[in-house]
Design goal:
Length: 422
RNA sequence: GUGGGCGUAGCUCAAAGGUAGAGCACUUGACUGUGGCUCAAGUGGUUGGGGGUUCGAGUCCCCUCGUCCACCCCA
């Protein structure tokens, strides 16, 4: 074998593609019901789009992007996440129209590229479905996005998904919190891990979710963002919880949820599924009220979610929510002898022309071999053509489940199969 | 980016320096025009790739690629 696929990427094979299509169709249908419209943006963007929105000091930007220069010397980056390109397209194509407060609801299905060390549930190309609601500051819209996501998981048979909820504040209150946090950490900094010493400067919020034992002990006493939210953020968070309660959605408040992208404000949430090992987050999102203005648009509040399809499919498997058995379908044309072969080809063509799945054995093997193949490939019918049938202009139709067969005129075969098909 | 486990037939796995094997799958036959069960035979391998040690390497050493796990991070 001369070639193999690049590290950390997957081929999705015919036997598994049905599960992908099912998940995709489920998401599309939910989006239709929730009134989100599909948007498709390019597979690469100007590098700056990601750098400036996701944040220069995030892991995604500092070490995980697939960045390259095109022949014109432009720096481009493969889609590293879904929100920034969607917002770029929203602004560039004036989707907000004449009404600056119009609520624009978009969804996407897209590959995402991140250069990271692969392991189970983590790949260099993965696929996300996502939804963005742009133009409303209301917490009810946050709840809608969360509800849409949870319904998606539920429809795919994932019953033990948990929702972790937090608020990360806004321009008003977060800087104060960050200073408070730094002030708290400062005296302990020398005992903390290298990463945290770096985070202290570059991304202090991430100090909160360090897994290092010593760091965790120290951070347990740290002030909580939730205690320092400004009035607006606190009210928003309260009302989001009230709405979730109203809609019967369970959640756990977790002040550790920070999210790895800098643009989040107020609401941040994450969905966890059991059985995925270290990579147990199957989706996440939040509000990003400052992002659109930062991209050069008018101040526009928005909220969104991104869900990892690979992980959802793994979680489905772990949960035993995978139903495999495909119903039998189609006709296998069995020909016996040289005379029957051309008639078989003609019959095959007619069957296909009316939309029936039909196949023939181009190797013209024994009846035995043809029937065995028809059986193992899951055909519902065998249409047998041999000398006897040719003489009578008939065909022998065999039911591959019951084994019963009958002789009928060739002219009636198609109508007969179409009736059976219903 | 760091540390560790593993790469042998299409698949799941044996072979502890001495002839590369089994089960399943596949093909053919028993059954000269009938699948599933049974039985028999057969096809199938540069042991991930490259280099080295050795009379001799799937096995030991080095490099490399891939994969899995943990860290990190995320979906």
């Amino acid at each position: 074998m001369l070639y193999q696929r690049p590290r950390g990427v997957n081929d999705i094979l015919p036997e598994e593609v049905g599960r992908w299509q099912q998940a995709e169709a489920t998401f599309r249908d939910l989006c239709r019901v929730y009134n989100y419209e599909e948007i498709r943006t390019p597979i690469f963007e100007q590098t700056d789009l990601f750098v400036r929105t996701v944040g220069e000091n995030t892991d995604i930007v500092s070490k995980e992007m697939y960045t390259f220069e095109d022949r014109g010397g432009r720096s481009l980056t493969l889609r590293a996440e879904g929100t920034a390109p969607t917002i770029r397209a929203y602004l560039e194509n004036h989707l907000q129209g004449q009404d600056p407060e119009r609520l624009v609801k978009l969804y996407y299905l897209s590959p995402i590229f991140r250069y990271d060390r692969p392991q189970a549930g983590r790949y260099r190309q993965h696929h996300q479905v996502g939804a963005e609601a742009i133009g409303s500051p209301r917490p009810e819209v946050d709840a809608e996005i969360i509800q849409l996501s949870l319904t998606f998981f539920e429809r795919l048979g994932l019953e033990e998904v948990t929702l972790l909820l937090n608020s990360v504040g806004c321009q008003q209150c977060r800087p104060q919190y960050v200073s408070a946090l730094q002030e708290f950490v400062q005296p302990h900094l020398h005992q903390m891990c290298e990463d945290c010493q770096r985070r202290y400067e570059t991304n202090p919020l991430r100090l909160l979710d360090c897994k290092n034992e010593t760091c965790r002990q120290i951070m347990q006493q740290a002030p909580s963002m939730l205690d320092m939210l400004c009035d607006e953020c606190a009210t928003h968070f309260d009302r989001l919880q009230q709405t979730l309660d109203l809609l019967g959605i369970d959640y756990t408040i977790d002040p550790q949820i920070v999210r790895g992208l800098d643009y989040y404000t107020k609401t941040a949430f994450e969905f966890m599924a059991p059985g995925l090992g270290a990579q147990d987050s199957i989706g996440g999102g939040g509000r990003y009220d400052e992002l659109i203005e930062q991209c050069g648009g008018p101040p526009t509040p928005a909220v969104g979610v991104g869900i990892g399809l690979e992980r959802v499919l793994i979680a489905q498997q772990v949960a035993g929510a995978v139903e495999e058995v495909q119903p039998r379908q189609g006709v296998f044309v069995v020909t016996i002898g040289e005379q029957a072969w051309p008639e078989g080809l003609k019959l095959l063509t007619k069957l296909r022309a009316v939309g029936l799945k039909a196949e023939i054995d181009y190797r013209q093997r024994s009846v035995r071999a043809q029937l065995r193949y028809a059986d193992s490939e899951g055909y519902q019918w065998a249409a047998i053509l041999g000398e006897d049938e040719l003489k009578q202009q008939s065909v022998t139709l065999r039911d591959m489940v019951s084994g019963q067969q009958e002789s009928l005129p060739q002219s009636e075969l198609i109508t007969r199969l179409q009736v059976e098909d219903e």
